[in-house]
Design a protein that fits this description.
It is a single chain. By secondary structure, the chain is an alpha/beta fold. Helices cover 46% and strands 20% of the residues. It is built from five helices and five strands.
Length: 145
């Protein structure tokens, strides 16, 4: 997977998600000699009122990115962070990937509820179905426990 993991865009949604995702992704990226761009996409309402201010979203993203940066430093993997605002989360992820010249998008699916997925959408499925570059899905490290 060497070239595939050369420059990986990793979407992260929360501190817990960043921790789980970094635990799964970083050992493989380190082994391949690659680097990470962590992307946090804030879904904008396209004319509707946002749930939180831009400043609140930026502060939240800083906390999420701190988890990523600490994990990357501990693993010895170079990383960047990228906060995006987009009407569609998946479009925001792939736009970031193209902007950074990523070799792949890598993520760990989050636990979800099928009913919620039907109502709100399933980002993991959309990332795979709408991919215009390689997508690597890693199982969570604690999946065997």
């Amino acid at each position: 997977m060497g070239d595939l993991l050369e420059l990986v865009v990793v979407p992260v949604a929360s501190e817990a998600d960043a921790e789980t995702t970094m635990d799964a992704v970083l050992p493989r990226v380190r082994e391949a000699g690659g680097s990470v761009v962590a992307v946090h996409v804030v879904e904008k309402g396209g004319g509707t009122i946002d749930k939180a201010s831009v400043e609140q979203r930026e502060l939240y993203a800083e906390d999420v990115f701190a988890v990523v940066e600490d994990a990357c430093a501990d693993a010895g993997v170079a990383c960047e962070t990228d906060l995006r605002f987009a009407e569609d989360v998946v479009d925001g992820i792939f736009t970031a990937a193209r902007d950074h010249g990523a070799s792949a998008v890598a993520f760990t699916p989050r636990e979800s509820n099928r009913w919620l997925d039907l109502l709100a959408g399933d980002h993991a499925r959309d990332i795979v179905n709408r991919a215009d570059l390689p997508v690597v899905v890693f199982p969570a490290e604690d999946a065997d426990e």
